[in-house]
Amino acid sequence: RNGRVIHIAHSQGSVITWLAAQRLKPEECKRIEIISFGGAATICTSEFPFARCINYYSVNDPILNVVPSAVKALKSGFSFGDGMQQEIIFLASRTGDPATDHGLLNPTYLEALVWEGQRYQSLFLSPLGQMAGAAFVGPLSSTVTWFPNFAYEMTRRAFIAMVRIFTLLWELVHVTITRLLGKGERYDPILLKTS
User: Is the whole model's pTM more than 0.90, yes or no?
Assistant: First the structure.
């Protein structure tokens, strides 16, 4: 009854969170913090009495094209009311690619996710828990931020290798079928006469 729920949503998950929030009682909302990354809906405390609402958006995220409140915040320079200016945070792109910027585990959002994890530890863990987090989670979080780039690069390389293999196989099948059907050019060896 006295605990705090930290709810993390991404993309369409923010819409699902917004719809679910309509069914909650105000006293239930007061125990929940909402952290949204690239949400298709902006969730704010002016609409629901959550303990905290933070909506992270990459300025390069294509989802901004369908979220009017986030677009309004970006265009206005956060100069409008309803407490939204503290609830929408725009992040500089870490990749420069809109498609990868939208992913939760890509560098742009992952950095904010790691920061939120550190915030949670500082607020809700005991000093002993904080020491354990510093010893084990801290080094892991710095490692995690490079992993999505590594995974993306490995996936890209694997895809290129597969395309090359399929191209070679296609050429092999094409040449084999052409020879079996007797089509195409034939080269007969030239016998040289020696005198």
Answer: no
